[in-house]
Amino acid sequence: MISKLLSIFEEEEISVEEVKINDILVVKPGEKISVDGEVIDGESYIDESMITGESIPTLKENGDKVIGGTINKNGVIRFRVKKVGRDTVLSQIIRLVEEAQGSKPPIQRIADKAVNYFIPVVLAIAIFSFITWYLILGNTLLFALTSLISVLVIACPCALGLASPTAVTVGIGRGAELGVLIKNGEALEISEKLTTIIFDKTGTLTKGEPEVTDISSIGMEDKTLLKMVASVEKNSTHPLAEATVKKAKESGIELLSSEGFNTFRGKGVQAKVEGKEILIGNRILLKEKNIFLSQEVEKRIFQLEMEGKTVMLISFDNKMVGIIAITDTLKGTTKAAIKALKEMKFNIFMITGDNIRTAKAIAQQAGIDHVLAEVLPQDKAKEVKKLQEKGEVVAFVGDGINDAPALAQADVGIAIGSGTDIAIESGDIVLIKDDLLDAVAAIQLSKKVISRIKQNIFWAFAYNAALIPVAAGILYPFFGIIFKPELAGLAMAMSSVTVISLSLLLKRYIPPVKRGAIQKEVTKNR
């Protein structure tokens, strides 16, 4: 692949092997993006279907990530190289799929064990057939040899050996096409046995982008309250703080300088602005500071929390002056995904660090019945283990970054990401797109693959159980039927073809949860 390198002086064409991190590459319409990077100039629609499975091109502009192997559709873009060689998303996907396709699900042990006994049993049947026809029943040597050879030829351990690997290879490849990376065969089989699915809230069920929804001030304008709060919160990197600062900037508010900034871990922050001691936090922090909350304020807090909002309480000089409510909205596919999983009879849990009222409100919006609230990140794995000790087979769906211990503890860890932000090592199953329907699709695909493996094993056993006795001549005394060696060879080949064909049908499989979405894409593209 040739890339166009932009230097200080001019553009020059170089091979992809020569591309280095921080090089600036130019991509024109119709050209393929060679490595991963970040757009620094221009905008264009990029066809990412080979990575995400989405047929509709995605708009990329300044600051957006681009992935090697995707195709630039219409505009000219310049991007700074971030990853090359084995570190690119495409290379990681290829490596992951290759490793997964070489793995064995536990169900394959049945076939492997059967094959160990298969050859001795077949040899015994063939010799017994020869002895019976030639020495006991007195048939000709030719007839007895025909029976012996037919048994040896028609016996097919190949079909048993192909039953699992072909289905796993095709199924995992199909998953990659759908944006679902299944890292090993064991994950396929366990996914088929799942009883419980736990979803992390922030960034998984919700967008992970908190927004200010309500400002209630006491004795001042809402804009003044927001200005003072944002002037304190600009010193913090907490998502709630960032939401407050963002709201202030959107409102055209110029922030003030602050001093003496202090953080109360898990409770709030404090600083001085224009001589006022400003405290921002939850109910626990304000009670520790002996700040009185009136009945009217308590009522407002209760109302906001019942709406699924996180409440920030604000005091100036130890006097309650206002409330700011922040919410993190559900993703567009959350409700549909939860509904689909409930129809599949799974127990669905939501786990979060939020207080119980806020957590229950959000769970209700999503359609989730079971809530694990006020759980610290380091304790999520413990909650997973508690359910496992009750006999549940648990999948944990998280963002693959903060949820690593829980993903590892779960029977199946499903890491949900987007594009280049995928935490490739985080789960047993990795979702390329930030779409919860893909989590459902992964489980449905796993069930289909394991079902197909069972079908393959059944037909392989059925073929041998039915035709080996016929080849041995069991029907000859009654109907005069016996297999000639050439027909036995044809039948043997057909058994392997049947197993392979059943596995290849997975190539066209569309998980039920994706059928509507794919049909819409087809309609749009017409």
UniProtKB/TrEMBL annotation:
It comes from the Bacteria. One of its GO terms (cellular component) is plasma membrane. Keywords: ATP-binding, Cell membrane, Membrane, Metal-binding, Nucleotide-binding, Translocase, Transmembrane, Transmembrane helix. Pfam families: E1-E2_ATPase, Hydrolase. GO terms for biological process: copper ion homeostasis. Belongs to the cation transport ATPase (P-type) (TC 3.A.3) family. Type IB subfamily. This is Copper-translocating P-type ATPase. It comes from Candidatus Infernicultor aquiphilus.
